[in-house]
Fold this sequence. Notes:
Elements: H1 4-18, E1 23-28, H2 41-45, E2 52-56, E3 59-63, E4 68-73, E5 79-82, E6 92-98, E7 103-107, E8 114-119, H3 138-147, H4 153-157, H5 168-178, H6 191-210, E9 251-255, E10 258-262
Antiparallel strand pairs: 1-6, 2-3, 3-4, 4-8, 5-7, 6-7, 9-10
Amino acid sequence: MPELPEVETVCRTLRPHLVGRRIDQVEVRERRLRRPVVAGFEDRLVGRTIRDVRRRAKYVLLDVGDGQDWVVHLGMSGRLCVGEPPPELTHVHVVVVLEGGQVVYYRDPRRFGLMFMTSAEEGLGELGVEPLDSAFSAELLWRLRKRHRRVTVKSLLMDSRKIVGVGNIYASEALFQAGVRPGRRFGRVTRAELERIAAAVPAVLRRAIESGGSSLSDYRDGEGREGGFQRELWVYDRAGEPCRACGSSIRAQVVGGRGSFYCPGCQR
């Protein structure tokens, strides 16, 4: 699933192509996404001008004026790209033509994504702190620790009601950088370890954004390019391989129903 770095990269790569352009045509070829694209969606978009492209959590928000956002969630396998979709490309569910002929299309083989209009970010659900904002800190983690002592540290980092956008890949990588095992109970994490986690999470996310995200399967940026951060992963999806820091064999375990990876030598 595209996580915060992938969604941020999509926003950054789409922005120069879309901002300032009027929406001339909208074609919905398949409405059956995670929630169906509502009837009349096309009419609400046509004639509006895209004023900005930004991210909130794992949502792409395209400001189309009058307090309205065109919202796209990429789900497990979605792409939002500029350019004519190749004729052989399957599962292209929405095609939008902009002023001047620019095309942007949404592809989603697994149809777990979302597309809708909203105002004031309604419909995005209960969302927590952005991990790239100053509100994300060791102090925040310490407060959460007092209330969620029995939750594993990785599960809490991935709880979007507390902290948004930190999915499976980057939670595993940040905890490796902080030297903390993903299955540790939050109540057993020390203040010093929380300081390391608070530093590692944004550092890993920023580095991933610089690399254009991670293309482990379907992900492409807004211009159709693969990301490169998968070549920099220390532990994620490397079970049985030697740790690049200490040589120990990377281990896998299930934490909160998700496959998790850690180094028994570097993480405690």
